[in-house]
């Protein structure tokens, strides 16, 4: 008799709520998929550790901010802690939406739940 298929969007406990403090991350593997779980200024997000450009492990990249729209010659820094840069070619992604800042491609995001002090990722 064949094994039952795993359900989609099954939730997996990945950490305690206090384990991933603001500005930190935890790398986990769920069903063979590498996933970065980040605390982005208090909001927990989970991103597939695959860059949509050339498949680099994007979740090990630097987290920082970016320059904001501004007048010519003016440089305004903002969104600190919300932007991750891919370690291979430096593409920057908005961690809250997955959207690349300079291309139409996006990082794959997973739903996250925090329930009674435990962080769950739905895969
Ligand atoms: S593989 Fe991520 S920017 Fe190229």
Mind summarizing the main beta sheet?
A: 6 strands, antiparallel
CATH top-level class: Mainly Beta
Bound small-molecule species? FE2/S2 (inorganic) cluster
- Secondary-structure content class: mainly beta
Task: Provide tags for this entry.
123 residues, mainly beta, Rieske Iron-sulfur Protein, three-stranded antiparallel β-sheet, globular, binds FE2/S2 (inorganic) cluster
Can you describe what's shown?
By secondary structure, this protein is mainly β. Helix content is 0%, strand content 46%. The strands form 2 sheets. It has a 6-stranded antiparallel sheet with strand order 1-9-8-4-3-2, with no helix packed on it. It has a 3-stranded antiparallel sheet with strand order 5-6-7, with no helix packed on it. β3 (33-40) and β4 (43-48) form a beta hairpin. The chain is globular and about 50 Å long. The two termini are 25 Å apart. The model has no long low-confidence stretch (mean pLDDT 94). Bound molecules: FE2/S2 (inorganic) cluster. FE2/S2 (inorganic) cluster is lined by residues 51, 53-54, 56, 58, 86, 88-89, 91.
Secondary structure topology:
Blueprint: E1 11-16, E2 25-30, E3 33-40, E4 43-48, E5 63-68, E6 76-85, E7 92-94, E8 109-115, E9 118-122
Bound molecules: FE2/S2 (inorganic) cluster (FES).
FE2/S2 (inorganic) cluster is lined by residues 51, 53-54, 56, 58, 86, 88-89, 91.
Can you summarize this structure?
With 123 residues, the protein is mainly beta. Helices cover 0% and strands 46% of the residues.
């Amino acid at each position: 008799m064949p094994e039952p298929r795993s359900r989609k969007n099954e939730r997996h406990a990945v950490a305690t709520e206090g384990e991933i403090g603001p500005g930190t991350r935890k790398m986990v593997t769920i069903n063979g998929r590498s996933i970065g779980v980040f605390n982005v200024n208090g909001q927990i997000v989970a991103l597939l550790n695959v860059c949509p450009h050339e498949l680099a492990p994007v979740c090990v990249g630097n987290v920082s901010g970016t320059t904001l729209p501004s007048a010519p010659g003016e440089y305004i820094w903002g969104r600190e802690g919300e932007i991750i840069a891919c370690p291979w070619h430096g593409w920057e992604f908005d961690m809250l939406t997955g959207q690349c800042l300079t291309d139409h491609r996006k990082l794959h995001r997973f739903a996250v739940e925090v329930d009674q002090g435990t962080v769950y990722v739905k895969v």
